[in-house]
Design a protein that fits this description.
The complex is a heterodimer of chains A (378) and B (273). With 378 residues, chain A is α+β, with helices and mostly antiparallel strands. Chain A contains nine helices and 20 strands. In chain A, strand 17 and strand 18 form a beta hairpin. The two termini of chain A are 44 Å apart. With 273 residues, chain B is an all-alpha fold. Chain B has a domain of 160 residues: MetI-like fold (Orthogonal Bundle), CATH 1.10.3720. Classes of the chains: A alpha+beta (378), B mainly alpha (273).
């Protein structure tokens, strides 16, 4: 028999597992400004951990504290059980890939990659072997003797990665590593990064503001806002079980319906959301009391759009099509309800030649099941 | 090519005439055969010959070069250090005061700088000579070096130094292996600026030089007071020639570098996957 639990990588669910990085009540202030606010977080070995959030949320400050360029104002920060607050950046087993790549312009690609190894006083042969290994890993053998300004942006990105991996750090920090690449190259590079992370077994912490990137590469994502972590979970859990309207709204597209809850059987609630409208039926494991404010977060792809009234849907309402966004693989319909609210519904265009019988101003029905949305209290 | 209007042609001519006629006259008369500076009496290079046999001039030239090389080297080291601290030191107590104090000698009248140095040297009991001129020139030219180097440091990508630290270099190694090679062009032009300033300084040198050492500008100035000799013209022509060659070769080198960078960038685009 195959043991399934061995193939699932989830050290965060194992209480006996020692985390590689521990933030314990870490606060960082710049003057009066609180960049990191009493933050506690564990990151485990071999994770690909993403810090996600809008600019100014503190994600870059966290990364710079891990690298040693900033010190916490209070709280402790541990790497492999050791307090690292007083360890200078050049003495930490942590390497960083900078957003600007920070390649040394006066050195060749080979010398850039060898830079860190030379600081360790390794022998010439050892250095040469390691640099060649890194060049091979990042497919840069042809460019070893070039200078950074003689190669393209995508190649520079790979040099930066090779240079930061050369010393085989316990932890690799990546600051918006793909921000400077165009979309197509970025997607290819995301998979390359995942491959390299798997091959080397290094723990990666990536900072990004691009939610799609975080979802693609990461084993776990931390959504941050104003120096605090709002939710830490796997990409799927973040998407399907957001813990707040902020997270639901930050990751992907979502409809938020504000309502008051009224219990209607086990784990089910009736939501009064507009005067004169039938209540919405929603399932929720999170308990709500009678009359409590609730927000129903429902993804556009979970809403079905039809021209006829659906037969046995838990929730169905009529509206008219205000706008259609055709994205090729998907179409998003903006449906306006009689009360003026706009609900987004998405369908996959699975057939090339389809009868697109829904067009602007058409009266349509939108419907969804009781379990399609998440009921949130904040 | 666009044709220039008559107004532009006139202003251009007047401007350049204003700048260069005095120098052209000096150069032309350095090839004068006669002893009188203002009367043309045929072409000759004999004054260049007598110049090289004039031991006083040759000694002064040697002192000038020695002073310029040593003082500009010291000024470059001190000026670069000052610039680095002021740009990189972050906000420390009295930073504004310090940077103001670094730049103040730029606008200080040279007479005052010279006089105060003279008083200092007398107070210390230092014999005036090559050493005192070197000290004085280092003092006033390090501000210029610091201005040139700090303007380069301001635009320097800080993450390059952080990358060096991150890869395990000590702060000193990061400076020596990354920062210094990258700001080297600014450091070199700072040195050249200090060198030129030292080369043509008259006021401060005349306060701080002694009987044992005289610089070329002082020598020329005192020689002219006894009447302009064609030898002085010849000497000045040589100095103009040296400066011109220096400026032209520097601009050729930088032009070639920028052309090469352009070609490299194009090659990188082509070979990109």
């Amino acid at each position: 028999m195959h043991n399934v639990s061995q193939t699932v990588f989830a050290p965060w669910d194992d209480p006996d597992k020692e985390p590689l990085i521990q933030f314990q009540n870490v606060t960082k202030k710049f003057g009066e400004f609180v960049a990191i606010d009493d933050l506690t977080l564990d990151i485990y070995a071999q994770e690909f951990f993403a810090l996600l959030g809008p600019s100014g949320c503190g994600k870059t400050t966290m990364m710079r504290m891990l690298a040693g360029f900033e010190n916490p104002t209070s709280g402790t920060m541990k790497l492999a059980g050791q307090d690292i607050a007083d360890v200078p950046p050049n003495k930490r087993a942590v390497n960083m890939m900078f957003q600007s790549y920070a390649l040394f312009p006066h050195l060749s690609i080979w010398e850039n990659i060898a830079f860190g190894l030379k600081r360790d006083k390794q022998s010439k042969d050892q250095i040469a072997a390691r640099v060649d290994e890194m060049l091979k890993l990042t497919r840069l053998e042809k460019f070893a003797q070039r200078k950074p300004h003689q190669i393209s942006g995508g190649q520079r990105q790979r040099v930066a990665l090779a240079r930061s991996l050369a010393k085989a750090p316990k932890l690799l920090l990546l600051d918006e590593p793909l921000g400077a690449l165009d979309k197509k190259l970025r997607q290819d590079t995301q998979f390359e990064l995942m491959d390299i992370q798997e091959t080397t077994g290094t723990t990666f912490v990536i900072v990004t503001h691009d939610q799609e990137e975080a979802m693609t590469v990461a084993s776990r994502v931390a959504v941050m806002d104003e120096g605090r972590i709002i939710q830490v979970s796997t990409p799927a859990a973040i998407y399907e079980y957001p813990n707040s309207v902020y997270v639901a709204d930050f990751i992907g597209e979502v409809n938020i319906i504000d309502a008051t809850a009224k219990p209607a059987g086990k784990d089910e609630y009736h939501l009064d959301w507009a005067a004169g409208e039938a209540p919405i039926l929603a399932a929720s494991e999170r308990p709500f009391s009678e009359g409590q404010k609730a927000h129903l977060a429902i993804r556009p792809e979970k809403i079905t759009i039809t021209t006829d009234k659906p037969k046995d849907a838990s929730n169905a309402m009529q509206g008219k099509v205000l706008d259609i966004a055709y994205l090729g693989n998907l179409s998003t319909y903006h449906v306006q309800l009689p009360g003026g609210q706009i609900i987004k519904a998405q369908t996959a265009n699975t057939r090339r030649i389809a009868r697109r019988d829904i067009t602007w101003e058409d009266p349509v029905w939108i419907s969804w099941s009781a379990t399609a949305g998440v009921l949130l209290d904040q | 090519m666009k044709r220039l209007s008559w107004f532009n042609v006139t202003s251009l001519t007047l401007g350049f005439a204003f700048l260069y006629i005095p120098m052209i006259i000096l150069i032309v008369y350095s090839f004068n055969a006669g002893k009188l500076v203002t009367v043309w009496s045929g072409f000759s290079t004999k004054w260049y010959g007598t110049l090289f046999q004039n031991e006083a001039f040759m000694n002064a030239a040697w002192v000038t070069i020695k002073v310029a090389v040593i003082s500009s080297t010291f000024a470059t080291i001190l000026g670069t250090m000052a610039a680095y601290v002021l740009v990189r030191g972050g906000r420390f107590m009295g930073r504004t005061l310090f940077s103001g104090m670094i730049y103040a000698p730029l606008v200080m009248p040279e007479v005052i700088t010279g006089l105060s140095l003279l008083l200092l040297f007398i107070g210390l009991g230092l014999d005036r000579g090559v050493i005192t001129i070197v000290l004085a020139h280092t003092t006033f030219s390090m501000c210029y070096v610091s201005v040139v180097v700090s303007s380069r440091l301001v635009s320097f990508d800080r993450s390059l130094e952080e990358a060096a630290l991150d890869l395990g270099s000590s702060p000193w190694e990061a400076f020596r292996l990354v920062t210094l090679p990258i700001i080297a062009p600014a450091v070199i032009s700072g040195w050249l600026l200090a060198f030129t300033l030292s080369l043509d300084d008259l006021v401060i040198a005349s306060f701080t030089s002694g009987p044992s050492a005289t610089t070329l500008p002082i020598k020329i100035f005192s020689a002219v007071r006894l009447g302009v000799s064609p030898e002085i013209n010849a000497l000045s022509t040589i100095m103009i020639a040296i400066v011109t060659v220096g400026v032209i070769s520097a601009s050729l080198v930088s032009k070639r570098n920028s052309l090469r960078a352009q070609k490299d960038a194009q090659a990188a685009e082509r070979t990109a996957e």
